[in-house]
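Your task:
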Amino acid sequence: MQRKNISSVELGELKKLFPDLINILNHKSDPLQILQPCSFDHYLNNSEAVTIADPSKDVERRTNHKEMLKLFFEASDNQVYSYRFKRKNRIHIYKITNWNYLHKAAQIDSKTGLTGCNFLLISKKLNVIYEEHYDWTNLIYLFPNSDINTIREITKKSGLFLLEPKKRNTHNIN
């Protein structure tokens, strides 16, 4: 099985690592810092944002984002967690331990600059949350003890750029 329910022990570990996890998944709370692996080397202005719809560059961008996702999965010891909302705003967290399942679920081969938010992954090993976002930019939420150096290496190897972090609070992660 590629997708498994998590045990109460694993849920306890996730709650310890990410005490505000439910609020972050609901976008009611912010992590300390956000890194943005992106296909572009700078933040796009309005006129540049129109150019991302150019389908001739989608294949290269897809390849880079697929490589980023694969390296992230491998750096997490082939074990990441995802979630989905159930009725009455309950969150169901499950473990993904198979690259083929993750690749199919992420729908990376049909991604364009206008699609996004197909997946959100939680890595206990790296202590980060990785979220796909629109316009060929992903978000990596950092917490205390996050492995920033591994994230930087993964981003560089995949051919993406790491945009300057956006600080949410005054706490310093480094």
